[in-house]
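Summary of Year 1 activities. Much of the first year was spent building the evaluation harness for sequence design. The harness presents a backbone, in tokenized form, and records the residue chosen at every position. We chose the following record to illustrate the format because it has been used consistently in internal testing since the harness was completed.
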């Protein structure tokens, strides 16, 4: 088996997704993931994706490809709010999901038992750090948030998103990097990006008067589940906008 690394870039959010689907389907790298009790058959790839230009506008407008199978985008984006986290943390721990991205961003801690170490609000730190980069007119590669907690994540349903990095680019712009350990290309890729970008604009980027000029999306395992292959084959590209033609 020859493992394939996909490199894709574009200024159409929708057609970049379609091209990725076609490439993963074409190279047909069959793997099984999960534990012994829940084996999942996938077509897999490692992928580096760059989005810019009109793709950023489409993301910020919450545009989903017309054939994207997931449509409850507002409901999903609500999970990336401080209000949602407040309600989530009031629930009994036994009833909670094993992780919530926004909770990890706002209340990261090595574990629930290490009370001597304070929880870290990573988003407030990230916003302040972007402001510092702007005032110093310097770009830092240290401005990031993480989700992984080594104390228990390897043994549970652990976060797919691992890391967000924001780099300041002079003239009030930012370059965003997302790093994923695992990613469902067919059912999750577009909503993941839309809701994370909405949250970052609200919490970090807009308060500093900045705008996004590029998004890098790196995936250790970008995959299509075998059960979704036939549906994925039917996805079509959409007409491009004048911005995409002339950009």
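For this record, the design step produced the sequence shown next.
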């Amino acid at each position: 088996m020859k493992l394939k690394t996909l490199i894709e870039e574009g200024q159409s959010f929708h057609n970049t997704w379609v091209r990725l689907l076609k490439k993963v389907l074409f190279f047909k790298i069959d793997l099984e993931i999960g534990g012994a009790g829940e084996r999942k058959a996938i077509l897999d790839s490692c992928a580096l994706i760059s989005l810019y230009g009109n793709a950023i506008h489409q993301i910020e407008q919450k545009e989903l490809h017309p054939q994207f199978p997931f449509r409850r985008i507002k409901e999903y984006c609500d999970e990336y709010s401080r209000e949602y986290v407040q309600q989530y943390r009031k629930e009994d721990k036994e009833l909670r999901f094993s992780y919530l991205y926004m909770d990890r961003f706002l209340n990261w801690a090595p574990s629930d038992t290490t009370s001597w170490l304070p929880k870290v609000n990573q988003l407030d730190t990230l916003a302040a750090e972007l402001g510092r980069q702007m005032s110093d007119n310097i770009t830092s590669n240290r401005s990031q948030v993480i989700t992984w907690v080594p104390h228990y994540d390897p043994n549970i349903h652990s976060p797919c998103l691992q890391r967000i990095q924001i780099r300041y680019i002079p003239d009030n712009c930012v370059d965003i990097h997302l790093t994923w350990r695992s990613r469902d290309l067919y059912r999750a890729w577009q909503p993941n990006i839309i809701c994370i970008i909405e949250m970052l604009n609200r919490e970090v980027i807009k308060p500093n008067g900045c705008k996004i000029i590029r998004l890098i999306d790196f995936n250790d395992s970008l995959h299509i589940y075998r059960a979704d292959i036939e549906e994925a084959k039917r996805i079509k590209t959409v007409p491009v906008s004048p911005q995409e033609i002339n950009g």
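The two ends are 38 Å apart (CA to CA). Quantitative recovery figures across the full test set are reported in Table 2.
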